[in-house]
Amino acid sequence: MKTGIRRIEEVADGIRMFELAPLDGTPLPHYTPGAHIDVHLPAGLVRQYSLCGRPQQSDAYVIAVQNDAASRGGSRAMHALQVGDTLRIEGPRNHFPLAHDARHSVLLAGGIGITPLLSMAERLAQTQASFELHYCVRNRKRAAFLDRLDALDLRGRCTLYTDDAPADARMDFARVVRDPPPGSHLYVCGPSGFMDHALDAAKQAGWVDSHLHREYFSAPTADTRDNTPTAHAFTVRLARSGKVVRVSERETVVQALAAHGVRIETSCEQGVCGTCLTRVLAGDPEHRDLYLTDDERARNDQFLPCCSRSRSDELVLDL
């Protein structure tokens, strides 16, 4: 779908909000909190951005992008855009939905990770559900959407933490996740280190893995300066057609299959978004994604072929 940038607003230091409206004026597809869209940028870049507007709005999608110096180019490309520029988008998709059976929800946002959790908080407030939102930033100038967080329906349920505050006023993960009420669900989004710390604290506090929900923005960058292979070759057998494809040390399963005319839909190509999730019928996957939970990985009945590989000599896929 072709959209035009209708509005750009600086919502915090280094963070811009973009309002994308369809060029033909048709209503946009509805989405649920936690959803994202794929944005096609110049030079062939495709990036995923969480929708942080209000889902009932049908004339525009709202995303927010942090200008990250360590990014792979997507944030710089977004921050170079101006009102009136056009962008092709796909979606929305939701791999980070709210659990409908949650009796209480704990939302933990780090930096730009506030984007999906803001929509979640507003939805939970609208339905009078039990929840709390904890938002961590470097300093108050880096906190986005403070006006919405201070709205009447969210006031008192959101706590802002800054890294420059006194030690006793900073985020204490162990305290926040301690003694979860029965039926609680935890949602975490932000930088990888923030998320790992939060999830580790939750597991130590006894949270059930199926009640831990996360959304990573990107996978850690691997150090490949010595160009040494980090995996062995293996074969993939496609159960429906019987086709057997060899995957070399230096290509992904997605790339190997594409070279033989088998296309798997991908988006992030980093094991973050879950778009390419594929059923495994036999074999031992080597999970390298950030999408599956520990319990899902242990079952070994699905994997993400954009990044994950095989410990066994062959994987049999439901393709």
UniProtKB/TrEMBL annotation:
* UniProt-listed Pfam families: DmmA-like_N, Fer2
Q: Which residues form the 2Fe-2S ferredoxin-type domain?
A: 234-319
Q: Which domain of life is it from?
A: Bacteria
Listed GO MF terms: 2 iron, 2 sulfur cluster binding; metal ion binding; methyltransferase activity; oxidoreductase activity
The answer, when asked if Iron-sulfur is one of the entry's keywords, is yes
Q: Which InterPro entries match?
A: 2Fe-2S_ferredoxin-like_sf, 2Fe-2S_ferredoxin-type, 2Fe2S_fd_BS, Beta-grasp_dom_sf, DmmA-like_N, FAD-bd_FR_type, FNR_nucleotide-bd, MRET
Listed SUPFAM superfamilies: 2Fe-2S ferredoxin-like, Ferredoxin reductase-like, C-terminal NADP-linked domain, Riboflavin synthase domain-like
Annotated FAD-binding FR-type domain residues: 1-99
Q: Which organism is it from?
A: Paraburkholderia largidicola
Name of the protein this chain belongs to? Vanillate O-demethylase oxidoreductase
Q: Give the GO terms filed under biological process for this record.
A: methylation
Q: Which cofactor does it need?
A: FMN
